[in-house]
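Dissemination and training. As part of the outreach component of the grant, students in the summer workshop were shown how a complex can be specified as a set of sequence lines and then modelled as a single object. The example used during the hands-on session is reproduced here so that future cohorts can follow it. Participants entered these lines:
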Amino acid sequence: MNEPKEQGFKMNTSALRAYTMIGALALIWLYFHWATGYIFLTPRNLSNLMLQTVQGGLTAYLNIPAFIVTLGGMLAWRGAVKGITESETIPVADATFKSFGQSYVSPQIGWILAAAAVLFVLFIAFKQIKTKKEYGIGHANPTREILQSLLPIGVIIAFIYVMNSYAGVPIPVLVLLAVALLGYFITNNTTFGRYLYAIGGNADAARLSGINNRLIVLKVFALLGALTGIASIIFTARVGSASPDAGVLKELDAIAACVIGGASLIGGRGTIFGACLGALIMASLDNGMSLLNVRDFMQEIIKGAILVAAVGLDMAGKKQN
Amino acid sequence: MALLEMKNIVKEFPGVRALDGVTFDLSSSEFHALVGENGAGKSTLMKVLSGVYPFGTYSGEILVNGDPKRFANVRAAEQAGIAIIFQELSLVKELTVGENIFLGREPARFGVIDSAMLYKRAAELLNDLNLPINAHTKIANLGIGQQQLVEIAKALSQDAKILVLDEPTAALTESEVKTLFGILEKLKTRGVGMIYISHKLGEVFRMSDRITVLRDGKTVGTNATKDSSIERVIALMVGREVGDIFPKTSHEFGETALEVKNLNVFDTDVTDKKIVDDISFSVKKGEVLGIAGLMGAGRSELLMAIFGAWNGKNSGEVFVEGRKVDIDSPSEAIEKGIGFVTEDRKRFGLLLEQNLLDNLTLAGLKQISGVFITHRSRETVAAQKSMKDLRVKANSPFTVANTLSGGNQQKVVLGKWLLTNPKILFLDEPTRGIDVGAKQEIYAEINKLAKEGLAIVMVSSELPEVMGLSDRILVLHEGRLTGEFTRTEATAEKVMARATGNV
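and obtained this result:
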């Protein structure tokens, strides 16, 4: 009786892992180092998206496990990159392009953005009070809602203040925030997002409830492609050159970040916020160990151990349920 | 002395007493049939015997040749000479017949398998049983019937003295059944005692020496086959009174809501095997149509195919409110106004680790919330109303589904489908594994929905339930429609006779 269940499993993993990966991959890649690494071309974003869609199609319609499609795809496309670049590192000449990865917004603009964000937080708070009243859900308590929004407002102001005290907010960080917000919106406020969790939680139940599982999985891969595009632009710009073997093994950092952030490898559970947090933890480790002059090989051992421990904890938690 | 005695076996699952003091015995060279409705406890009893439920998880006594036995696992039962052949075969498909027969007991020297010896012994064994099967053939290349015979050969190679066969002929063709029975006759002459579980009373009467009937986890009778009759066995199986525990209110029916013509459903693996064979029926608004039948009769598959959720081939015509519809996916079925409370809520119904709100709104999300953007507040209102209407006992819509009792979980699945505003509602085993109180509430809800004009098609293995709730009953046997009764015509005996194919 267990066999069909496991079949569902594969589906879960493919959909949800891909989805949680998007969040973390984008974030991590943005902030650190990812590029599939060939010369930047404007249509690249688009082509990336299409390639990912092909991979999504293989997973969703031919039932090839997502892991294999991704692994195979990674090898193949990396080979293609080597072919195109003839295995050489290509420097970025265009100054505007470089600025995507290397420049900062001026402190004034930083404060303007902060003001906009604060207004947005207040707007959300008021809107919630209104809907709660309108639908008569819970106890609409305006004071509490406003008090609750003080924390994010404080965080926004502190963040801008700290950033401005150096050189302003880096562009990649802004992109990260934009992608994270978009991801948050998709996962929490769209039918598409809800279906992702449903497919991850129980693919059979989702299908029988009228969800087109295959189409959703396909869309997830397309989205992954788009985000990979954004990430690679930022990374290439930040490093100032595109090398064929850039970003090797970063996918493992991404998975580790998601899992540390509470995403389940089995599917159905995980948040953008958690993935951001996980990425921050991984990045802090990286950065901190480098500052402490921990030797390179030790850093790798520690990160590897953390990845295994995080997944182990996830599985142990699963078993208890 | 009896080859096997089982005394006063009691086995409890949370909330259910699956076996309630069952006593059973078997002599050598005896063919003893074990019959009963779905859920009567036959499979549970055999799992106790074969060590699947180890000693300590049940109470009672098992004696083999007069010796008390306490099996800690399946292996221990096998060593005592008990072999069980389950409905789902346990052969490794990618290995050969010979390799499967000696799996785990390969003739070997210093850890190296002696293949020549293995195949020689396998061939001897197959020969001895007159099985026309080559020991070098891969299991994957054999039909289900032949695989079953390999399982039996495997059991005998382990010197089984007690052979348990659970619905062995369910997937077999007639000639395969003949071969199987030939072998079983042969085993009888060698002193093997056989316990034979089957719904097919014809076979039972043809083969068995004695028949034991189980009902609701109790032994209700053991009789020599020659002193018994099919009618008598059916009466014992059905037993209980279909009393007035289901207050059925009558009301007028509306026009035809759903009509199905010449529906055929084919197996997903064996694509030319019909699981549902040329079935036509219709159901009116306000009517409850019950579908009775035994496990494997094709009832769920019938509903799945109409709902666009069947993975294999199917053919036939479906009309919703008089218009022909072409439903290829559950989303199209929902659009046409069909809801489907699927069987096995944990596997097919619920997102167990997500909250009730997510579960309740899943199927009707686009209607309740929005096509692209969701509105949490609208959903909360809908979920709260649904929980109140169905009396789901939970703190809030944000309670996680797997913390609820079975009855409340079942109500959530029902609620999910009612939130799609269906005109036609399919119910597959709507009260399986839930307590009596929740059952009554679901029955009341079904009656209420019918009164409101919903057309309801209900599949259930519980005969009293089908008879108590339905206005009309269809009986399926091996994919074919073998009977149709109105509420007043139907008796448990008549329905059971049709369901077992003994008309």
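The longest strand of chain A covers residues 90-91. Students were then asked to discuss how this feature might be tested experimentally.
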